[in-house]
Structures are given as C-alpha cells and as structure tokens.
Amino acid sequence: MNTVFVLSNTKKPLMPTRPARARRLLRDKKAAVYRMYPFTIILKERADGETQPIEAKFDPGSKTTGIALVAEFPQQGRVVLWAANLNHRGDSIRKRLADRRAIRRNRRNRKTRYRQMRVLNRKRPQGWLPPSLQSRVDNVENWLKKIIDRAPIAAVAVETARFDTQALQNPEISGVEYQQGELAGYELREYLLEKWNRTCAYCGAQHVPLEIEHIVSRSKGGSDRVSNLTLACHDCNQKKGNQPLEVFLAHDPKRLARIKAHAKAPLKDAAAVNVIRYAIGNALKKFGLPVSFWSGGRTKKNRVLQGYTKDHWIDAACVGETGAEVHIPQEMRPLIITATGRGHRQFTRVNKFGFPCAKAKTGKTVNEIRTGDVVKLIQPKGKYAGEYCARVTAIKNSNNYISITVNHKQTWFAAKLAHIMQRGDGYAYAYA
Questions:
Q1: Confidence (pLDDT) at 214
Q2: Which of 12, 35, 173, 284 could connect to 40 by a Cys-Cys bridge, CB 3.0–4.6 Å?
Q3: How many whole angstroms separate alpha carbon 241 and alpha carbon 244?
Q4: Residue 39 pLDDT class (50, 70, 90 cuts)
Q5: Residue 351: its pLDDT value, please?
Q6: pTM of the model
C-alpha cells in the first residue's frame, strides 16, 4: 500500500514512512493520527528531521488525473512513494448548469415575476474557463497544495498534452518534431486506446495485443484520419482484411451500428485536455516550485519500455525524463480520490416543468455531523452490528439519522453512535 505521511510537532513535512513503522509509533504513543485520507501522522516529540527531495508528478486527463510522488535513493534508485487517481466531476457540473439554465429559461415563460435577461451586463475575465473545465484545474491545484503540506516536495513534473487533435486528424502533417523522432505514433495509439476502451472493436477481446485497424481499408481508398481508425486483435484484423465493414459484420448489425457511431464521435475528451493543459501549468507555478512539462508520447514510451500496465497513476510515475527508470513496488495500492463537491445551493427541488415539488431542507447538521464527513460508527446490536469507518452520504434532521454505505448499500444509523474522524473536504476516498 502507499506510504504514510509524517509531520513534525511543528507541522513540518518529513519523509513518508512505512505503514509498519507508523503503527509502532502510534502504538507507543509517540505519534497521533493527523488525518485519515491521505493517512498522515504527527509526531509528538520531534520538531525536525532530515529529508530527501521528492518530485510530484501529474498526468492530467479528461476524467481522471494520475498523481505520483517519486524520490531517488542511493541504492534503490527512483521509487514511487505514494500514488493516487483523482476522479473529476466535470460532467456532473455541466449537467447541473444545464438543468439550472433550463429552469431559468422556463421561468421567463411562466406567469411569474419578470426577470430581465443577463446577457450583456457581464464580462468574462481573461483566461476564463467553463466551470466544468475549471473544476479539473482546481482539483489538481488543491491536491498539490495538500501534498506540499505533507511531504518535502522539491519539484513538479506535468504531462502537458496527451493528444494533438491536428495530428490525429491528419497523421501525415509535417513540421511537428515529435512525429519525426522516436516518439512517432505514440500520441495516436494512446488516443485510440482511450477511445475504444482498450477493446477489440470486432470481437470485444480485452487484455490482448491490439493493432490499429482501418475501418475502410487503404486499398479501398480509406484515409489515416482518426475517424477511420479503430482497434482490433490480430485474428480479427487478419480475418477482416480489406473487406468492407458492412460485409464483415453483416451477421452482427448492432455491433456494426455501434462501431460506425463511435468512430465519428467528436474529440471531446482530447479537446478538454488540450484546453486545460496550460491552465494547470500556470496554476502549479504559483507554488514557487520548479515545474517541468513533458509530452504524453514520452510518458507512454517510458511506461511501455518498463513493462508497466496502463493506469493513470502509473502514467504519472512515468512522466518526463525521470520516468524512464522508476521502480513501482508490487504492493502499491493507489488512493482513489473522487471529487464530490460540497453540496448545492438550491433551496428546493423542482419538477421537469420548473415548479417546486419538495420543501427546502431545514438544516445541514446532525450532532455536528455533515454530509461528506468521515465518521467512525459502532453499532452494538442488530443486523448491522459492528464497527464502521465511512463517509456520510446523507442525513435526516427530523430523527437524527445519518447514512453510510455498507456492503454497497445505503444504510441508516443513529447519529449518536458516530463520532467524526475527518471533516468533509469535497472528496470521497477509497483504495484500489
């Protein structure tokens, strides 16, 4: 699993330690738990200590950003100390904004108080990003700040772009340096793997070597545009040959329609990554640390040459020049961080016509516990007797109940049985 972050009694970040050593310090009462996620202890008697420089690496993505902390030791070389996958909530934000816009526009057509349109009386500041994209930038910035408070970070490495949409549309474009070097083709392959979910488009095979396949073969006039490319296993690639797709999949019309629709899907995720790449870089520069930027092609090359499997946090460890030789412990378990937000400001629910259909909440707190807090709950008897440590997903003010997830099911418990382990910070946590 991941190492444990350590703070001195003055809250100075020290070198992370092994879980076994952290347990001994807690058992001997030489340290106390400072935070549950990411797990951090604070020493009671030690005010300082020697540290080695740690590099924080980020692999920004449209839906998930990989994070890895890498340190170099004289005998072991570069080792991954801590890793995490940060899941963004851009799609959720976009949906909520669309719902709010629909309600606002509906209100203008009903017999309610007239509200003048706010279109020409607002100006967007320079560098403005849509909220769904800005949330991705804010998440990465917030987590670098959290990491700096818990580890002696000396440098930051960021993958600036995974995809070049112009090169994807026309792979034969000239004048781009990486296409003519040893990184040629890595950008296109990585995009196709993401787009087709690392699955053979024709038979659905996974965890097998995949080849780039032309939907309309080049002998029949097919181009190298990304909309004409898919992934296929070796057997399907050979079996299809230069047959038209309609002939090859005549026995499976559903798969045929799905491939045609998916092939022409827009480059939405690639565009989102390209838009936020410089915004993330500018946000990370604010911390005053040296920040280096690297291409996605180099990241994949480092990962493939070292034989590591595909994952966002593994990609983060392989970012840049230092990612060419990095050791990932076999027992490493990344922390799964999911951005959940901090609730909403909507006073009451509305139906599809925009009319109120539910009363506003009377409060947000039960026994000082709020939604998002991590609590330790002890149920003495009954069907769910036991001890739980989980995140509060909902509360009931009327009868002082809180809800947590037990065995993948939302379950209600009396709030008096729980006490707070960590205040909610807008994220949910789990280990892979």
A1: 92
A2: 35
A3: 9
A4: very high
A5: 78
A6: 0.77
Q: How far apart are CA 219 and CA 176, in angstroms?
A: 27
Q: Where are the domains of the chain?
A: 1-49, 52-108+130-176+270-339, 196-266, 365-431
pLDDT exceeds cutoff 50 at 182: no
Look at residue 170 in the predicted model and tell me its pLDDT: 54
The CATH class given to the 365-431 domain equals mainly beta
What is the per-residue pLDDT for 26?
95
Rounded to an integer, the average pLDDT of 119-142 is 86
One-letter amino acid at 347 equals: F
CA distances from 215 to 1, 166, 201, 211 (A): 43, 20, 10, 12
Per-residue H/E/C for the chain: CCCEEEECCCCCEEEEECHHHHHHHHHCCCEEEEECCCCEEEECCCCCCCCCCEEEEEECCCCEEEEEEEEEECCCEEEEEEEEEEECCHHHHHHHHHHHHHHHHHHHHCCCCCCCCCCCCCCCCCCCCCHHHHHHHHHHHHHHHHHHCCCCEEEEEEEEECCCHHHHHCCCCCCCHHHHCCCCCHHHHHHHHHHCCCECCCCCCECCCEEEEECCCHHHCCCCCHHHEEEEEHHHHHHHCCCCHHHHCCCCHHHHHHHHHHHCCCCHHHHHHHHHHHHHHHHHHCCCCCEEEEEHHHHHHHHHHHCCCCCHHHHHHCCCHHHHCCECCCCCCCEEEEECCCCCCCCCCECCCCCECCCCCCCCEECCEECCCEEEEEECCCCCCEEEEEECCEEECCCCEEEEEECCEEEEEEHHHEEEEECCCCEEEEEC
What confidence category does residue 10 fall into, taking pLDDT thresholds of 50, 70 and 90? very high
Q: Check pLDDT > 50 for residue 179.
A: no
Q: Which CATH number fits domain 52-108+130-176+270-339: 3.30.420.10, 3.40.50.2000, 3.20.20.70, 3.20.20.140?
A: 3.30.420.10
pLDDT at position 75: 85
Q: Is the pLDDT of residue 243 over 70?
A: yes
Distances in Å between the Cα of 309 and the Cα atoms of 87, 134, 198, 299, 312 are 19, 30, 12, 13, 10
Rounded Cα gap, residues 113 and 324, in angstroms: 63
Is the peptide bond between 290 and the residue preceding it cis, with omega within 30 degrees of 0?
no
pLDDT at position 181: 46
In terms of CATH architecture, what is 196-266? Orthogonal Bundle (1.10)
Task: State the number of CA atoms in the 13 A half-sphere of 317 facing the CB.
Answer: 30
